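Q: Make up one entry.
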Amino acid sequence: MNDYNFFSELNRDAVFSDESENFRSPSKPKKDDKVTIKIRTAENDADCVFVVTDKEKILTEKKLTQNGFDYYYVTILNFEKEFNYYFEILRNGEIYYYSKIGISHYRSECVCFKIIRDFNTPSWADGCVMYQVYIDRFRNGDKSNDVKTGEYMYLGYQVSFKNDWYRFPSADDVRNFYGGDIQGVWDKLEYIKNLGIDVLYFNPVFVSPSNHKYDTQDYEHIDPHIGKAVNLTGHILDKSEHTNENAELYIKMTTDEENLKASDEFFAEFIKAAHAMGIKVILDGVFNHCGSFNKWLDREKIYAKSGYPTGAYWSRESPYKDFFVWGNENGWPENGSYESWWNFSNHPKLSYETSPKLLEKIMDVGCKWLKEPYSADGWRIDVGADLGKSAEFNHKFWKYFRKRVKEANKNAVIIAEHYGDASPWLKGDEWDTVMNYDAFMEPVSYFFTGMEKHSDSFNRELYNSGKAFEDTMIKNMSKIPYQSLICSMNQLSNHDHSRFLTRTNMTVGRVANAGSESASEGINEDIMKEAVLFQMTWPGIPAIYYGDEAGLCGWTDPDNRRTYPWGREDTNLIKYHKIAIKLRKEHLAFKNGSVMFLNCGSGFISYGRFDKKEKFIVVFNNNDFQCKIIVPVWKLEIPDKDKLGIIFKTDESQADVIFNVENGNIKIVLNKRSGAVIGYKKKI
């Protein structure tokens, strides 16, 4: 690559290492494994290279020269559970430092590579394709278990069933039901499988009075309203009734042992059917708080007449009193002074510090659904960092949770909802990984649309700034251990944020002030296709929020929870998702290969994905005009005179051309709002 020049600087662009199998083997080391670490420089460019650890500086050995690059190796024999390192490169008396954020003259800027021994994330989760289902809005497969209008009171008003499946959610949607259920998902398993989905993630499915079910009423049973109901008799409230004491049908649905047993057994059969099709199932665990309907609190007297112990809301002598924190120790009966999450009274915060009994109950729940007869494949954890009264206890809880869960199902995955730096929880003994907001959803949204993830603001500086995107991704990815990164949940949309397709209209709004129809105005499917291609070619788990693939729009919660548009799907967008997923699944380089930014600028980005067998260049032009992009493919060790071709494109009108590598580069002209994957066409 470079002839040695005594006075020249190091070729910084040639230096590369990461934590994939390309440069660290094994990438997920177990106890007593030897670990070989590699780094690449331009040929004859470095005098020597050291691996610098917390304890020592180790001289590497140049073992390979190929395609204009030198490869330096070192093998680590014995190390602690955590092993941090960076590289020190010497050239002509100058010292350069290379770490997870790239190369620098300053050691203080290094972010260390990290080996965490025995951090065993399940291999099936690495780079799999996920589909998130918000159960009430996916499909109504069993009309007999639908919530009835007036069946019970929720947050001051009677619940309502919407007979019009295509009706948009109202601004105050929490007590409105559309009838989606597990049978509906079962009916569409073939559709989900044909998309190319490997794992289903369900928003909460346990007994709960809301359509979102994040206020759990009973962790030990599947809600019969989405499962199976066999006893369907009982009084429905008339308009003059404003309490739940006589909500007989609801009480029967959610406390009757036959209904609960039937629902649990039905769910076990569903998971068995999903597994038979090669689809795993992840559940949503809401363990920071429960709901005011919960049988331990029983504020609504759902359990008072059902033979359960008295709820803590009604008596100081309740066996569940210590499950909660009370502001008024003299407030019984009807003690409403319990601590709640973010002061939402329907979200009582659980107090594990005051109740070892509660701790064990939740641990049992965490294990129950991962063992036979259910055998679910993991948990997505709601607001994981909020649990407990202190950081110390929070970490203690998640360490214990991981121990118990992995004993129940060693191949279960633990994915936590978290905003910000999650590294304190990602050390191999708590969470496996996170919903990847910092190093995926937010920067992807800003680059392609300029929109904040709720559609609450437009950021002109981040929109189309390829350099800001590259810097943000590298910085935030550097905080995530490799084991966690390759199974992190990479979403464009979910139940808490606006639909990505709506964000492509680059308009600030929410349903309460902008109305439902405006969420579909001015959208740009070309941008959506770009983002999907990025999602399918980036490290981590591409996680599709139900309906995104069918063109569903929506402002942030609750408008993002629209029903799946059966019969009104955007069939072209579904077809596009299928082929993009197929591209990912056919090439392992997209799942666990190295990722290297190549050239990023105003409205465009390009990066390489490669492993020991394949090399790909992914390029996007997000400008509103055609753009010529120069891509330095020499960084991927692709030599001059090689011929490359487009193997995937977001724009069908994009010309199929052959690219000749000249002076280490290819030049590609991309149509506006389009992306392409380039590789050795004859080998793919």
Summary: The CA atoms of residues 570 and 627 lie 28 Å apart. Residues 12-118 form a domain with the Immunoglobulin-like fold (CATH 2.60.40.10).
